[in-house]
Write a structure and sequence with these properties.
The structure is a single chain. The chain is α/β, with parallel strands linked by helices and 355 residues long. It has two domains: 162 residues, NAD(P)-binding Rossmann-like Domain (Rossmann fold); 128 residues, no CATH class. The strands form three sheets. The chain has a seven-stranded parallel β-sheet, sandwiched between helices. It has a two-stranded parallel ribbon with strand order 7-9. A two-stranded parallel sheet has the order 8-11. It binds NADP nicotinamide-adenine-dinucleotide phosphate (NAP). The site of NADP nicotinamide-adenine-dinucleotide phosphate (NAP) has 28 residues, from helix 1, helix 3 and strand 7.
């Protein structure tokens, strides 16, 4: 049996698609699980299992011999109903952490929650420290908070647990949130628009790059001061919706036009039809088309700013603190992978003409 065997749940998901290769590169033995079949991108030496953490009658085999846990499985509002969010966050975490306690081999367990536990409606101290009483206001935040309680209960029963609370994560492979905004801009460019309509009232954004989240997980899993504590994970830089729109518009050859109408821009049917036309032209359909245009940019939050003091007190430093550079790098990646299409005139610069 290996000295250190890491179990990664949620292994078919976005965050794990970066974490599992990073663990493998660092020489960890990895057991990974999701519900779907093994992802093609999973490192060959990772032991992959298809397991539903709620339905599987016995999680004993999954956790056997595990020394470290990265619990990433969960469901968010982009794709799941309230009932699914409860099932796949709360029930799944209760069952997994019960099995981890019973296994008796686990040295450290890290669970991925979310800063949505703080809620949007009740004003908390700003920047929000981890030790406030969270006031989750939406289904996802409530489910993540309840899931955290299962983790803290296991901690009280003797399991060395750590919780990370990331904001919206972006980077290569992301399919929702900022990715959906990037798709929206690409759709409008594809239609032929050269003005990108954005609501006049700016909304402050918060993001963290996937590389920073993965580094934070690898840093905290071994850190002696991380046991029994939650950690916010955020870039610490807060661009406005206007700034994000400017970055995207400039890259795709458009100009931002501020608009009094919060619902400005093409409607859902037009966006959907244009996306279909883009798929016909060879675009991959991975990025989620949000029902509401620019859904991610429009979500204001009175508790937007988060304290990084806890994470920094462990010696961790954020690497991607320039949103312009990080967002532009995302766009280049989506263009290269054809998850969005380049504007006419730029296509040859992105893909060889033979393709
Ligand atoms: N992405 C973000 O911006 C963000 C921000 C804050 C917090 N988080 C949290 O970070 C974690 C990872 O996020 P992500 O973006 O990687 O999520 P994701 O891409 O949506 O992937 C979710 C993963 O959870 C698995 N899963 C869900 N329910 C399950 C169940 N009942 N049993 C077993 N596996 C189950 C899914 O398996 P299948 O797909 O195979 O069914 C998938 O592998 C989640 O807990 C999320 O709440 C994410």
């Amino acid at each position: 049996m290996p000295d250190r065997l890491a179990l990664v749940t949620g292994a078919t998901g976005f965050v794990a698609s970066h974490l599992v290769p990073a663990l493998a590169t660092q020489g960890w033995e990895v057991r990974a699980c999701g519900r779907r079949p093994r992802p093609a991108s999973m490192p060959a030496r990772a032991d992959y299992r298809s397991v539903d953490l709620v339905d599987d009658p016995d999680l004993g085999e999954l956790v056997e011999g595990v020394t470290h846990v990265f619990h990433l499985a969960g469901a968010s509002s982009s794709r799941s109903s309230e009932a699914e969010m409860h099932r796949d966050n709360v029930r799944a975490t209760e069952r997994l952490f019960g099995a981890l306690l019973a296994a008796g081999t686990v040295e450290r367990a890290l669970a991925m929650s979310s800063t949505s536990v703080y809620g949007e409606e009740v004003q908390l101290p700003s920047p929000v420290p981890e030790d406030v009483e969270p006031r989750p206001s939406r289904g996802y935040g409530k489910a993540k908070w309840e899931a955290e309680q299962a983790v803290w209960s296991a901690g009280a029963a003797g399991l060395p647990v750590t919780v990370v609370r990331p904001v919206s994560v972006h980077g290569p492979g992301a399919v929702k949130l900022l990715a959906s905004v990037i798709l929206d801009v690409a759709i409008e460019r594809f239609i032929g628009l050269d003005r990108l309509a954005v609501h006049r009232v700016p909304v402050e954004q918060r993001l963290v790059h996937i590389d920073d989240l993965v580094r934070a997980c690898l840093h905290l899993i071994d850190h002696p001061d991380a046991v029994g504590r939650p950690f916010n994970v955020v870039s610490g830089v807060y661009p406005t919706s206007h700034e994000v729109a400017e970055i995207l518009a400039a890259r795709l050859g458009m100009t931002v036009a501020l608009d009094d109408d919060p619902d400005c821009g093409p409607d859902y049917d037009q966006r959907k039809q244009t996306r279909s036309a883009m798929l016909d032209r060879g675009m991959a359909g991975h990025i989620l088309l949000s029902g509401e245009r620019f859904r991610f940019l429009r979500k204001g939050n009175r508790n937007n700013r988060l304290s990084l003091d806890a994470l920094e007190s462990t010696g961790f430093r954020i690497g991607h603190a320039d949103p312009r550079q990080a967002i532009l790098a995302d766009v280049e990646w989506y263009l290269q992978q054809r998850w969005i299409l380049a504007p006419a005139g730029q296509r040859d610069a992105v893909r060889p003409p033979a393709e």
